[in-house]
Amino acid sequence: MADREQPVTLRTRKFIRNPLLGRKQMVVDVLHPSRPNVSKDELRSKLSELYKASKDTVSVFGFRTAYGGGKSTGFALIYDSQEAMKKFEPHYRLVRYGQATKIEKASRQQRKQRKNRAKTVRGTAKAKSAEKKKK
């Protein structure tokens, strides 16, 4: 973990206060000349310090490293409250930050196969065949 001690500079631009969604949104430029990249977790903690917010209300995504390295650009949202974040942030990002649980469901292929099997039978047999195939 010697990488965490290397200097990292954060610059924000296109800062917008969005009261309807209860958040601040901005483009973040990360300068990391002596490191290959910076983790999103580390960026969340640095931004929370910078804007005096809780780390749980900060969301970062869409980071791309510039050709040659040394600079990454992405997007950050800082919500006013935990409730606003849960209300407006997409579920998959809440799962990423450990604030929601992932919904376990059958694979896409299995769901399609079940749908097509159900199309071949008619009436009350449809429910029976779906139950039989699940086992």
Low-confidence stretches: none
Mean pLDDT: 88
Distance between the termini: 48 Å
How many strand segments?
Answer: 4
> How do the strands of the widest beta sheet line up side by side?
1-2-4-3
Lay out the secondary structure.
Elements: E1 9-18, E2 23-31, H1 40-50, E3 58-65, E4 71-79, H2 82-88, H3 91-96, H4 108-120, H5 125-134
Antiparallel strand pairs: 1-2, 2-4, 3-4
Helix pairs in contact: 4-5
Features:
135 residues; alpha+beta
Give a brief rundown of this model:
The protein is an alpha+beta fold and 135 residues long. Helix content is 35%, strand content 27%.
Descriptive report:
By secondary structure, this protein is α+β, with helices and mostly antiparallel strands. Helices cover 35% and strands 27% of the residues. It has helices spanning 40-50, 82-88, 91-96, 108-120, 125-134, and strands spanning 9-18, 23-31, 58-65, 71-79. Strands 1-2-4-3 form a 4-stranded antiparallel β-sheet. The chain is elongated, with a radius of gyration of 22 Å.
